[in-house]
Amino acid sequence: LTVTADADWMNASGRAFPVTVDPAVNVPRSSVVDLDISSSSPDRSSPSDISMYVSSTWRSYWKTTSLPALPESAYVINATISLKAAQMGNNYVGVYQIVDEWDSTLTWNKTVNNDQGTFSSLVMDYVCVKSENADADDRFTWDITRVAKFWYNGTANHGIGFRIVDGTSSTVTSSFYTSENTL
User: Residues near 20 by Cβ (< 8 Å), separated by ≥ 6?
Assistant: First the structure.
């Protein structure tokens, strides 16, 4: 492993040595719950599907059942989620904080009737999901730093959700591989 720190930062006056560079922290697949729900199948739950959909009638959910441990002196400066696209579409897909509890039995009707899996009204980040915006592995990445900081500061972790950004249209469904997919 080679880490190259920014020279100006490293040589700044007042820099205290030794300098500690924190490694990236990843969530293991085994602690992920991810699924999608649809208004066209309001009682369907899909926790074992290998892909999850986002369109005008589909929403996707993701959460970790346990946050990765951080050293006591660490603090979150950047958190992202990266999903591999199964189908691109041409949609502005936003990531939102989920503000109440949900589990692997979530359905569309439960979001409407029981206050489960409610999306925040504020989009944290969005990406136009189409081939020219994908990285080399057909991945798309969203910034979730704000919500990750909340989770590590003690706010309940209800995960995040993906849906079409308000004010944009969705003509083709986008889909992403879930933690159940072995790709």
Answer: 73
Q: Residue 156's CB: how many other CB atoms inside 10 A?
A: 11
Q: Are 49 and 180 in contact (CB under 8 A)?
A: yes
Question: pLDDT for 15-44, tens place per residue?
Answer: 888 777 766 777 878 889 999 999 999 999
Q: Span 103-117, mean pLDDT?
A: 93
Segment 44-97, tens digit of pLDDT = 999 999 999 999 999 999 999 988 888 777 788 889 999 999 988 889 999 999
| Rama region for 101: left / alpha / beta (φ>0; ψ in -120 to 50; rest) | beta
Asked if residues 109 and 74 have their Cβ atoms less than 8 Å apart, the reply is: no
